[in-house]
Structures are given as structure tokens and as C-alpha cells.
Amino acid sequence: MRHGKGGNEAERQQRGFCEDVFHGGMLRRGLPFRKGCGYPAAMLKYVFTALAVVTALLAGLAFYLSRQPLPPVLPQASHSADIHFTQPFTLTNMHSQTVTEKTFLGKPTLYFFGFTHCPDVCPTTLGAMAGWLKQLGDAQAAKLNVVFVSVDPSRDTPETLREYVTAFHPHIIGVTGTDEELKAVAKQFMVYYAKVPNSSDPNDYTMNHSSMILLADRNGTFVGTLDAHDPQAKAITTLKNLL
Q1: Is residue 74 situated within a structural domain?
Q2: How far apart are CA 165 and CA 155, in angstroms?
Q3: Are 108 and 227 within one domain?
Q4: Where would you find the membrane-spanning parts of this chain (predicted)?
Q5: Annotation-wise, does 118 bind a ligand?
Q6: 125 in the same domain as 50
Q7: At 2, phi and psi to the nearest 5?
């Protein structure tokens, strides 16, 4: 009988120790497990396996991000005088007509630089500007120039531009030019863009570019910027003040 009681008492002590490991903090304190608990060792095996999987996933994510092109560092005009809308330039619009620095004078103008193969920034920004024009109504929208300047002349022909921009709103005007013409305009407007080649397919390149919308008054003077993520009320107020 004593042997039985001793055995039962030993079992109770063993269970108590294991419960203390689980619930009493010994596991948290890093104390060694007593032989016989068993289950914590199995639990640790699963914990270590999970940690290994998470570590592998994080390493894979870090490698993927390291292979992506760095986001462009957008140059900022130090002063509004650094942006010149009225200096001579030549581009071509979506109707194959010549566009110069004088074309858009007489109306406030929104300039946005991008390209038709852009996966996110361009459709988001054009969609925002289309929403602003709809909110203003046709009468007021007609008093603005909304100009989309493609920095990808190799793929964005006048026909491609016309089909692309008018799908957002009929008042949006698409323009582009030769590489040299676009470089000159980008410099005058203080806009960044750069081609990002695809080493596996030369025809499947992308473009990094500024995402800001430049605003000019009816005299061609730079008056500020808008962003696609600006609240619509702010954008509408800004545009109405230009009219």
C-alpha cells in the first residue's frame, strides 16, 4: 500500500511539475524540462519548425524586394521660378498636331507625366483627374486644359494616346514627343522620368516618373501641385480658384 501511495504521489508530483512548466513560467524562464514531461519537447519541435518557415519566408521577401527597382527620387523645385511652362518647347498631341509653349495659354492647365503601359500610378491619377472634371461639370471642365504627357514615345503613338486618355475623360489631352523633346520639357517642368529595362525582354520595360500634377494659371505661371490622393474637396477648390 505504501508503494502504491508513493507511486501515486510521484505521479502527482510529476504532473504538477509538467503543469508548472506549461503554466507556471518555467518554460518562459528557460528552465530545463524534467524527463517524463515529453510533450514540451514535441511542442518545441513544432515551434522551431514554424520559426524556420517564417525565417525562410522573410529571407525570400527580402531577396524579392532587393530585386525590385528603387522608387524614383523626385526632384523638387526649390522655387516656383525653377519651373518654366512658357519657355519654348515642341511636342505632338494625340491628333498628330504640333504643341508648343503657347498652345495651352489662356486657360489654367494641369500637366501630368506618365505612360500608357503604367500599371498603377497613371490610371489612378488619370482617374482622379477625370473625377474632378466630372465634379466640376462640362461647362467648367471646358475652361481647363488637362494634359497627359507620355514619356514613352516608342510605344505611345498619337493613336494609342488618344484611345487611352479619352477612355478616362474626353477633355483630357494626350501629348508626347521625341526623346530629346521630352527631355527638354521635363527639365523645364522639373519632372523626373527614367526608363527601367527588363533584362529578360527588352520590349517589356517600364518607366519611373514623377507622380505630381503640375498646375499653371492662364498665363502659364506655375501655381502649385495636386496629387491623385488629395481629398476631392481640396482638389475641386484648388481648380475652382484657378478658373
Answers
A1: no
A2: 14
A3: yes
A4: 43-65
A5: yes
A6: no
A7: -65, -40
**DSSP string of 84-111, one letter each residue:** -SSS--EEEETTS-EEETTTTTTS-EEE
> Residue 62's pLDDT band (boundaries 50, 70, 90)?
low
- Domain of residue 152: give its range: 80-242
Are residues 50 and 155 located together in one domain of the fold? no
Question: Where would I find the beta strands (DSSP E) of the chain?
Answer: 90-93, 98-100, 109-114, 145-150, 172-176, 193-196, 206-209, 213-216, 222-226
| 85 lies in some domain | yes
pTM > 0.70: yes or no: no
Determine whether the annotation assigns residue 122 to a binding site: yes
Q: Is 18 annotated as a binding residue?
A: no
Residue 90 neighbours by CB under 8 Å, 6+ apart: 98, 99, 100, 177, 181
Helix/strand/coil for 242: helix
pLDDT digits over 78-103, tens only? Answer: 445 578 898 999 999 999 999 999 99
Mean pLDDT of 229-240: 96
**Number of independent structural domains in the chain:** 2
Residues 204 and 198: their CA atoms lie apart, in Å, by 6
